[in-house]
Request: fold
Amino acid sequence: MAILRLDVYVPLLCVFSLFRCQLCSVEPPLNHRPIIGILAQKTSYRFENFGHSFVAASYVKYLESGGARVVPISIDLTEAQYQKLFYSINGLLIPGGGANLVTSEYSKNAELFYKLALQANDHGTYFPIWGTCLGFEELTVITSGRKLLINTDTSNVSLPLNFTKGAQDSRMFKNFPVDLMKALAVEPLAANSHRWSISVKNFTSNTELRNFYKILSTNMDSKGIEFVSTIEAHSYPIYAVQWHPEKNLFEWTKKKDIPHTANAVKMASYMAEFFVNEARKNWHQFFNKTEEENALIYHYVPIYTADISIYEQIYIIDNKAFS
Ligand SMILES: *[C@@H]1O[C@H](CO)[C@@H](O)[C@H](O)[C@H]1NC(C)=O
Ligand SMILES: *[C@@H]1O[C@H](CO)[C@@H](O)[C@H](O)[C@H]1NC(C)=O
Ligand SMILES: *[C@@H]1O[C@H](CO)[C@@H](O)[C@H](O)[C@H]1NC(C)=O
Ligand SMILES: *[C@@H]1O[C@H](CO)[C@@H](O)[C@H](O)[C@H]1NC(C)=O
Reply:
């Protein structure tokens, strides 16, 4: 009997442990309570009366819709506080808007988090960064150390994406349903709202950019300038879009050409879920529950701004909540 049992159990045990090891090496445990930081930027003339810095509510809702919680990142913290915050959150979103790409607090904070993210990833800690519009431009400035932008006719136009060959097996798009990829390639679903772009010419002739990022899509403006519209880093979880997936879901101004079709909404939801899934691979956490609660966006009350801006709502961010 004992021998018979060994015959049965030993091979079973071997199979089981093999299976278990494979699971371990392929899929590290995921963090299903991800918290993502969004960089604030200085308020400009229309918002100045409300406060010192802001985050558009559409970016908050976008990440929340993907299953994450949000921590707004004030422009008034000390370097030590930013460092502490980096080791507390699971990813960073650098939003669109209007800020100087070299001298603003927004740009300095983007660069600080970028450097910390490269360091962390180099040491085996997965930390994803996402840039949208101005955030896309900011990432190209940080990576190349230069402003290589050109003025384009793209301030109010929705476009299909011209996918590169690399898009199909990119981390960003490889799990998109085939019909959605087709829609994205032929329907004008990507809302462009930028005066500056990086041309394919400038991007590909810059060694740092070429070596760091893979181009996933390009577009052409009405003047025939071909610009880069979607990128992902070759060896880091860093992603950026020159267009605005969060607007498809959450911005309704008629001053801008923003697609709200079923495919536009589906595409935007996939983008949000993709990035939140990236943040699930990070296990940074706040020092304790109180610190976490105090940092979250739920402490802030959005302000109605649809009458004076292209945003339905914004959050005014100060440095009271996080210390
Ligand atoms: C390339 O970048 C420079 C700035 O460094 C800019 O003046 C020029 O217009 C850009 N050219 C193209 C084709 O994008
Ligand atoms: C896609 O690329 C082609 C060729 O460069 C260009 O003619 C076309 O305008 C581009 N389409 C979009 C939507 O940017
Ligand atoms: C932007 O485009 C939309 C749709 O084409 C148009 O209705 C709107 O007037 C445009 N806005 C501006 C400021 O030109
Ligand atoms: C959480 O940590 C802070 C220090 O960052 C401390 O002041 C506070 O007492 C701690 N709260 C709890 C509930 O442990």
Residues 35-316 form a domain with the Rossmann fold fold (CATH 3.40.50.880). Residues 148, 150, 199, 201-202 surround 2-acetamido-2-deoxy-beta-D-glucopyranose (ligand 1) (CB under 6 Å). The chain has a mean pLDDT of 92.
